Write the structure tokens for this entry.
Amino acid sequence: MTIAHETLQKSNTLFELGPELQEYGKTLTEWSVAEVRPYARMADETHAPPPNWKDILDSCPVAISRRDRHAKPLPDFIDGRWVRDLVTTEALTYGDLWVNDVQGSGIGHLTVKIMGTEEQIARWYRPIIDRGGQAAFALTEPGFGSDTSMVSTTATRDGDTWVINGTKMYCSGGATCEYVVVFANVDRSLGPSGIKAFVVERGNPGMIIAKANEDKLGIRSWQTTELLFDGCVVPVDHMLGWSGNDGATSSNKRQPTTQSGRGGALGALAQNKPNISAMGLGIAQASIDVTRDRLSPQSDSFTPARWAKIKNELDQMDAALHRIRRVNWGAQSLLERNMANKSEASVSKAFGPPTFERVIRRCMQLVGPEGSSRELLLEKWYRDAKILDIFEGSAQVQRIIIGRTLMGADAGRG
Amino acid sequence: MTIAHETLQKSNTLFELGPELQEYGKTLTEWSVAEVRPYARMADETHAPPPNWKDILDSCPVAISRRDRHAKPLPDFIDGRWVRDLVTTEALTYGDLWVNDVQGSGIGHLTVKIMGTEEQIARWYRPIIDRGGQAAFALTEPGFGSDTSMVSTTATRDGDTWVINGTKMYCSGGATCEYVVVFANVDRSLGPSGIKAFVVERGNPGMIIAKANEDKLGIRSWQTTELLFDGCVVPVDHMLGWSGNDGATSSNKRQPTTQSGRGGALGALAQNKPNISAMGLGIAQASIDVTRDRLSPQSDSFTPARWAKIKNELDQMDAALHRIRRVNWGAQSLLERNMANKSEASVSKAFGPPTFERVIRRCMQLVGPEGSSRELLLEKWYRDAKILDIFEGSAQVQRIIIGRTLMGADAGRG
Amino acid sequence: MFDLDVSDDRVAVAALGRGIGLDLLSPVARAAEKQRSIPSDVHRALHETGLTVLVDESHGGGGLPSIGTHMVAIEAMAYGDPGLTMAALWAGAGAILVGRCGSPDQAFALLPELASDPTKQSVVALYEGFGRSPSESATTIAKDSDGRWRVTGRKLSVPNADRADSLIVIGVDPSDGRLRAALFAGANRNSGLTVSEDDEKIALGATRTFTVTIDAVLDDAQLLGGASAESDKLDTAVGWLRLMVAAAQCGTAQRATDYAAKYATERVAFGKPIASFQGVSFLLADSSIRIGAARLEMLDAAAHLDANWPGSEAIVTRAVNYCGVVATTATRDAIQVLGGHGFITDHPVELWYRSSAALSVLDHDPLLSNFEPAL
Amino acid sequence: MFDLDVSDDRVAVAALGRGIGLDLLSPVARAAEKQRSIPSDVHRALHETGLTVLVDESHGGGGLPSIGTHMVAIEAMAYGDPGLTMAALWAGAGAILVGRCGSPDQAFALLPELASDPTKQSVVALYEGFGRSPSESATTIAKDSDGRWRVTGRKLSVPNADRADSLIVIGVDPSDGRLRAALFAGANRNSGLTVSEDDEKIALGATRTFTVTIDAVLDDAQLLGGASAESDKLDTAVGWLRLMVAAAQCGTAQRATDYAAKYATERVAFGKPIASFQGVSFLLADSSIRIGAARLEMLDAAAHLDANWPGSEAIVTRAVNYCGVVATTATRDAIQVLGGHGFITDHPVELWYRSSAALSVLDHDPLLSNFEPAL
């Protein structure tokens, strides 16, 4: 076994962002501190983004979520699109994460892209991409979260329509979006394989906004909606992946097949996991910086031993975050190469969030009795951060996935 | 609801040992440092206790394991017998834990006491108590550890005898004891309820010492024996809990019932768990003290920040150990009151050992490049400590028990 | 001797506290947070228990429990709600100091009123931040050249400093480094105090807190216990007040763990109650282990205080900090077990998560625990 | 730019290394530990790979790989056995320093021999303990008044200091605080060096180590690279040597985790493979997560060294320490999964547990990780 010299001599490129992407991240960070952060407290207290959120987004030096974004695509960097997106997310969230909920378009349209027919993609995916708007995703129900095979919402065929009944929770943008992609079971005797996705457009009768926004521990400005489907009728061709042309009638039991199932959709959406971690990086890094800035001028008020400990801890926190950042970059750089990153994306999701909570909590504690006051944003970020280890799969769910990569399908099955 | 004033005014007694027990512990500790520790390296290297171990034990100021111990019972303390035993164990182990293996009588006789008939107790339990000697316990097999329902060793009735076949591992003292209590299944069609215990005396034909002592990571001087039972014939009345008088013959399938099953025996033996933790306290506390003694005179060789960190860490280690000590005392003080301590004993076993490993490892690291050298005992104790989280139930097994106390029998069942 | 109290009496005190916590406090916890005060009927009922405003019989109160017993009661009440428990305790905390350390005149002036009138408040200005224990206080109570006492300092998170009928400031006498307490009551209630209200906290909303800047000159009569006060009594009484937070953390942690444990036996995923997955059950078992250790540490500190053990301050500091670690971790893990349901206010776990965090910052010493990445 | 190398070339290097590790090293790991040296046939075979004693082509060697590539190879070899991997690397470590920083004369004097003769050794005296990074070294290489160089200091865990053909001491030039290296070779091999053998370590038995006390006076020609040596080259080369330990830790951790994972799929308890219990699978998943992060940190440090990034020392220190945390934890958890079988020498996991501990103490900085109780 020998390997060519030139192979051995090739070195890794540095694990640092290119200077252009660094500059871009810096610009966005400065903007989010200046324009996003001042509204953080208001967003938390009113449980809504600031009323002028569109104007705020328009003030962004990069056209990420400006109204003119479709005319001005994001710059390209040699680091690639996926790493750029991580940098973008962290930089925006560094101001505050109210912005994340209004900044994107949700994930409903991405589900259409993954599961839909060409016709459906043209009808529901392209417009969101081309002119903006929001598309919601309704999977979770009061009775389940992690175990998505437990969908109890039903869709019953009735002639040229589907009749949907059930309750969905935690639908981001469910009250404001153009349409919701709803997962429902068309034949519970089939078990999980009866679960299909349906597009329900805004204002569709029978889709009731039971609660426009849950009352939550954190991310209070994010509109997480509870939707009630009460005899909600949609045309037959609203089932993703199926044209409605198989001649099935309400009386026959033959079920249409879809292009890509729930698993495929969830798998593709899983690519978003490192971005969840990047959000946490934003507020955790902001917490460290806020704490350092606040305590440094007061350093004389601490005993030397305590101040040394605090400085060391803040440095250890920086290191811990950079370790997470590197893992996120690594996971998404696989996508850049068109390689699968299922396990790496799970690692990213499992690795970051529990540490973000610890960073922010410790920052509150280092600040002391005032650390939990609304005078600072630390207490808000501590509340916000908790969701990161819950949605899009808790660390427990990620460990099941990682364990299976390591030990096969039975790992962690219990 | 009101409560009498005198009730409210009653205060907890201090969580400190009584002065007499403190003095006793100090005496034992000094002895173990002076007389036990000097043989620690030899015991590790020779995989055996020092040849003069009986003389060493006889030099102990307390008659714990002296040859005259039966004439001189241990002193009583107001703290009670169980807490005294914890103090004893920690103090002895502080020297080194080679002594623990030769100091006791094993647990075979205790099993006889729990599971045996009165006749069997008189025959096998009392003599060990009255004149010493060792009785081994053979449950674990190559194929199982935690799941004791998996006993594959068999005992087949043949007239007035039982014929035992199978392999047992990790039998402490299996090569040197007076007898071994062996668990074997008399009828595998009954599943776990066919598992019974048998006394096999030293020299019984068919009991073969396959390996007198395993080659181990740590506690190398402890004699953990692999025993092979190859058509090992014992009289019918050697089955614990049964006189052999049910008239059963080799041809009928009716199985005798025993006084107390495997579960009862394991449950009673579980009372020993806090003593396992106390062993770990001994070597972990010794590690901290050795490290502090070694590094303090060199403190000027560290930067002030590093030395402050090290001092703080050693203090945190002391606090962590005292927290564990308190939990152990608390668990055994329930026994003092004749209260069950199943869950508390599991807590004690789960709580201490993983922290002992961390303490000792960190001590090695704080000492630096010389920290893993045989010049010090830290490296030995790091190897020894690992067993504490394995034998008598790993932290995982303990958490199953604790979880069941909290959430019922299905908790952690997988 | 080591002697864990598992007596029926102790069990009765815990049961009494749990009854108060679950029946009286828990149902109004969210309302109290919103209205920024203890509902007055609840406050009255708490006052009647004699567990929140402690006054001895000779001054018309129900008598002082031992510190250990009080901690058992506090933990049990906090099992219902830590925010209300601490709100009531903080509003009457001065009674402990006056009762333990006050002169007969001071006790007579303040205690009968506190014992009889639930609307009367006596609060203590204790915390300063910067990881300081009381003996490291930068607030000084110093005799000046004309024999009067100059009090200067800055106290944080002082409960109800605007409305309390009396306010006691803890400081250090620079002449001997021992604790002293300055009593601001009656005509002197406000002299030399500058009070500014804090922003609302992440939790504990039923207590309004203030930053109090002190620059006052006092007579001997305004020193708690007078100029010849015994500082070791004050050490114990201050330790008592600090340890109340540790007890409340234990109760909070235990409640969150029990709540999550019950949820885990009922919630089904992947075909089984989630309690059957070790990823869930081990998380809660770990909380359970830690809470047991934290409780013993807290009770040990209480026993040291009850015995007037010298050097109790360090033991109290350690207990308060460890209980903070345990409670913030346990409430966090309880949310984790509930998943999305833990994150919404339909369940009380998020309130306990916030409460334990708010309690953990008050008396935090960075030297006693560490930031450690989760992985 | 951020660019993770997942190329076929990288994969090929890893595969080569794994082949060496699993086929050549792993089978003799225990024997080598017992005989306190690398079996000579294995040593010869390793030497031929060109991955352990690095010499460029102009001096008859196979060429120097990039540091990043070398780390990939080292991790892969350590997957077979860390003790043998490091034994071979340490025995030839001087080649890297001489090749990178030596004068042409020094290179010519030493490298051809090291390239051609596997029995020749050139070792480096690097570690001092006390958490010191090289730039904090208390070993000084100072120009004295008559223009010669005085080297004083004490180095720990110096490999094969008795038999190595040359020995290079790393120290700091007090005049500018930069690194210098003193070369003890040929006639000067022993002058000014006091060498005493260490007791055996918990692992890494194939390497004998020594404490070396230095009090020597040298000419310019004995300074590595001469009096005008560029210290930034030396910074990089010393970082390279230190980072080898981090790479070996990654390999050790990965192997232990893979081994335990396989065991967990085969071992049955309570009616199922133990891998199906989250108490087992999450433990291994956590190891897997941490190892991935540690590897990236190690490769990041390698990339900084390859780019001669200023300030790489801190990055290397952090990587070495984090990889130590990860490997000691992962090998510990691997034993835990094997239970009693993990504790006996029938399985190799206990060897990796010892090896990772031994590696973790060499370059440990107490400021970069914490003692934290398990619960």
Chain D has a mean pLDDT of 96.
